[in-house]
Amino acid sequence: MSYGERHESSGVVETAFELDVDGRRVPGLVWSPDDETPRPLVMLGHGGTSHKRGDYILAMARLLARRHGIRAFAIDGPGHGDRLAEGEEVDFERAWGDERTSDWVVEDWRASLEWLRGTQAVTRVGYWGLSMGTMMGVPVVASLADVEAAVLGLMGFWGPNSARIRADAAKIDCPVHFLVQWDDEIVPRDRCFDLFGALGTDEKSMLVNPGPHAAVPPTVMRGSLEFLATKLANDSN
Amino acid sequence: MSYGERHESSGVVETAFELDVDGRRVPGLVWSPDDETPRPLVMLGHGGTSHKRGDYILAMARLLARRHGIRAFAIDGPGHGDRLAEGEEVDFERAWGDERTSDWVVEDWRASLEWLRGTQAVTRVGYWGLSMGTMMGVPVVASLADVEAAVLGLMGFWGPNSARIRADAAKIDCPVHFLVQWDDEIVPRDRCFDLFGALGTDEKSMLVNPGPHAAVPPTVMRGSLEFLATKLANDSN
Question: Which backbone phi and psi does B89 adopt, to 5 degrees?
Answer without folding.
Answer: -100, 155
